[in-house]
Design goal:
Oligomer: homotetramer
CATH architecture of the largest domain in chain A: Up-down Bundle
Number of helices of chain A: 13
Shape of chain A: flat
Distance between the termini of chain A: 55 Å
CATH class of the largest domain in chain A: Mainly Alpha
Number of domains of chain A: 2
Number of strands of chain A: 0
Strand content of chain A: under 5%
CATH topology of the largest domain in chain A: Four Helix Bundle (Hemerythrin (Met), subunit A)
Order of helices and strands of chain A: HHHHHHHHHHHHH
Chain lengths: ~280, ~280, ~280, ~280
């Protein structure tokens, strides 16, 4: 097989050639099948009937992914940079567990092997890499990370306080509120409007407090929603409006604009602006 | 009865004449009654008491809808185009099941007939056709389809990973988390804040992880909300700025614009446009 | 007691005099107490211990509200207009049940009387009248009523279709999905993310479909949120921006603006605009 | 120990010096550990095994916080102002319970002591003080407080009315709807989409009404979300437009403004302002 490092790198790491695209699609299909195999193997009756087949499938994909990981290390320019990167580590985590399961093959370790197996689910994470539209969302979430932190801290504080109060109110009469941590678990369940119903208040006062927590949780969801909406609007507006008119400095041009909306001067697309610098018409 | 193809087509396919409107309203009423009949027939005591009546109603509406379908095929200009269209197929699906139930009438197929019957529920879908305001919403949803796909993919990845972790944590101690697919079902239930409570964590560590998933699901709902809100704002803004350039007919001018963003021609405020037609100032 | 019709009308129907405000506050307190009395009377042990007292309280408030209703009819200019208005009807409904309970006083009608009693809860609705900030919200909700109707119709159609499918899938194996209406009830429970857990899928395929419904319901909530947010933004923008510059016709002035942001010309507040028409400085 | 009042005040009350920052971080860590100790002590098996250690930890932190409270009182300029402030009262509440537990040490008061202990959870609230990003959110919530009040009042009215109707419908057939307050508790559970499932309708009509409440609750959440989003956008817009008028110092100019909206003076773009200071063009 005679292919150069560069050709391999373009196929494996980039997706804008037909070969590169085919490689990526095949990889996604392989990842999905191997994840499905791990999932099915956890169902008892499937494991009993087809366990050997699934074991073979698991080894097949582990070998395929190992070869792929080797190729990635070989053809990338800066090997160490890739190996330390987020996806480099995930690529490694996705193949190691199967090999480790060989060493610790004693019956008593069976459950542990299962744990390692499930870690291969991380392969799913690699799918995100292939989606390009995530940019705007990520940008908005990064911009709102501080506000979201404040929000989550407030929710956690509320949940701890309400959980403790609920323990005081219900603790004596109701076994379900057996300790403060369990009451906090209940408060999270209630405030996030999940409401399993495995723990429910039984006293009148407890139900009254639960009512307050529910309405609070119902209303508080408006805050992160507002934050993310605001930041998405901002990110969207910024993307559209980074050009200023060379004559009157007006901003707010729509993305397709060729002429300034205020003075009618000629505008340049960003690429033009970057390429040449002659501001005359 | 002597009515032309064209007159029939206007009554059946269009809704801006009194006759066409009456036809559409009658059709909606008929669809709703027939759907109601199918629904009521599934209730045991109603089926025992009034099953024959409902069977008659079902045949009556099937015949009415068959005649209607025939008229549609007859009066439309391009018969094949209609038959292949979305609504053409639904119109057909809504009448076929009753006829098929005649062929497979053996007692052992009774349940299957029931299945076919319920497919007639698709008639409900035809109601959407009559609602005109859906345009803006559809436009916003189409514009945000890529972002929504990214979002749903992320949620699915999270749900698979969290479900697998939960299986590892709870799997031994808790029969409810019997396999990874069931744990994923639980993770979806929790992350979407539905929270049936048919599967709940019992270990301390499981409850801690459940708390994390709940708060994550509670916060993540902000993302699709932000996306749709942004796109609805965009769609609304575009619709509001319908001033078109007198030279190049470009649309999408911002409200303060004086010059066309595409060709640089002078624009007029709506009042000016309405009042006078002299293009000088 | 010598007070004129006009003076009484200002006290009873308006809230911008000290006497009128005191009257309204007293009325709200009375309404809340009487509602509380009805609510407490439904609790068995309170009814057994204090039923007579609560019965007396009910009659006391019924008489007070009857006198108030009489005064409203007497002092209003157009009696019939008030009597037919929304609040006029509610005012009547809030006193009638207690009187009817005298006629139907037999033991076998006791439960019916209770029903009539509870209708007095409508008094709560009158509280809305006293809150002024509801305007903007109402405006936005009215503007979005068509879009909300489209949205609710879509949700109902989805719920009917998914409920019917679920009946087909789970109906045989699971008693909880006993009929299509019950399955639709379950589908509503799931799609709105309420998730009681009184009906849950038990088959693998049913759980898979439930997962789809949950994620759909989780995402679809973004649509009404986006609609209301858009309309609130619109209503807010409209309220701020109805003034145009008399010189350059610029719009988009902030609510407190005195001078045009584009040409610096003097602007008039809305009241000024209404009062005088001299456009010079 | 020779340190001045001023130096101590800067360390204790401010966080922009290294010493002040270290003090604040240490305090947060101490608060979190003491809250954790209270929480763990409520778990039965931890209390049995390590109760004495946790008792010692509680006293240790109580003494530390008492010294800290004393220092705060000593070094602040206006002692009484601090003692009456929100954080001053919380600081006091966080240390008092442990001392009171000495007086009421009889076995029969053990539970009461526990209650007082849990009040120390209020220490968590102090964490909010250290987060600076909360400003924008708080601003938006304050601006929308009236609209939120209207919304919550409407939800409460709906919940009372629907709860009462449900009591009438289900009350006879279903023990779970034993009184109006319990039915209201159920209505809150349903409308906020929490859905415990401890109380569920059993009659056909009850399920139908429950369906209406669920869809209503599912849609109504859009209102507070819209309100908060609008106010966040407003607060963000105000913050972004911090250009001040050189004549009258007015803020809140729109991005395209050339003239001050309050006094009509000529405004400069930010770049101009930064580059030159000559007010003519």
């Amino acid at each position: 097989m005679a292919f150069s490092k560069d050709a391999a790198r373009i196929v494996i790491f980039e997706a804008n050639t037909p070969a590169g695209k085919a490689f990526d699609v095949a990889l996604i299909v392989f990842i999905l099948i191997s994840v499905l195999a791990v999932m099915l193997d956890s169902v008892d009756w499937i494991h009993d009937g087809y366990g050997d087949w699934l074991y073979a499938v698991e080894w097949l994909f582990t070998i395929i992914f190992t070869i792929e990981y080797g190729l990635r290390l070989w053809c990338i320019q800066n090997t160490w940079l890739y190996a330390r990167s987020f996806y480099g580590i995930i690529d490694l985590i996705c193949i190691v567990p199967t090999y480790i399961s060989l060493w610790f093959a004693g019956t008593q370790y069976l459950l542990v092997i299962r744990v390692l197996r499930v870690l291969r689910i991380f392969r799913v994470l690699r799918m995100v890499r292939y989606v390009g539209e995530a940019e705007l969302i990520t940008q908005a979430l990064v911009a709102s990370r501080r506000k979201i932190t404040v929000f989550i801290s407030s929710v956690l504080a509320l949940v701890v306080i309400f959980g403790s109060f609920m323990y005081l109110i219900e603790g004596g009469a109701n076994d379900q509120f057996g300790s403060i941590p369990e009451s906090i678990y209940w408060a999270v369940t209630t405030m996030t409007t999940v409401g399993y119903g495995d723990i429910t208040p039984s006293t009148t006062f407890g139900k009254a407090l639960a009512t307050v927590i529910m309405i609070m949780g119902y209303g508080i969801i408006a805050v992160p929603t507002g934050i993310v909406t605001m930041e998405l609007n901002e990110a969207n507006r910024r993307r559209a409006n980074t050009r200023t008119c060379p004559m009157c400095s007006a901003e707010g041009h729509s993305r397709e604009a060729t002429y300034c909306w205020r003075c009618g001067a000629h505008l340049f697309r960003r690429e033009e602006q970057a390429a040449e610098s002659s501001p005359e018409r």
